[in-house]
Design a protein that fits this description.
Layout (H helix, E strand, L loop, with lengths): L1 H19 L9 H4 L9 H15 L9 H23 L9 H6 L6 H8 L9 H16 L11
Helix pairs in contact: 1-3
Length: about 150
Amino acid sequence: QMKILLASALIVAGTGVAMAQGQKGQGMTFDQLDVDGSGEITVEDLTALRDDRFAALDTDGDGTVTKEEFLASERIQSEERAERMFERLDADGDGALSRDVIEGRQRGGGGERMISRFDEDNSGGISAEEFEEARAKMGERRKGGERGFGKRRN
């Protein structure tokens, strides 16, 4: 039971490190987590990863991360994500995205679906009351960890 508990703790810690390194959704490989190459992921490996992450944030090496250092790191990560997304969307590799490509990546199929989800009285439009009701539902769902708002899908 102790081995299972230790393994679970390592997995949780490894996931936290992976997320802290901006690899959400990708996860880290065993080899990345096994920093010392010993064939096992140890507490020392995870500590080294955390230390590396902090050192990458603390660009002036003073032992603290300033707002500027933190924001610079986030900008770099954001730019890298945006670049990867652009490359995925630019299927023909011409360095430009058409309107169809941009609009095609939006969930929900555009305005018609939004109108149909929020238009509780089926008038063909969203009244101020329906708009406020949808915003309230969205706020409630976000507090509960759900995404989206409007009419529930069946």
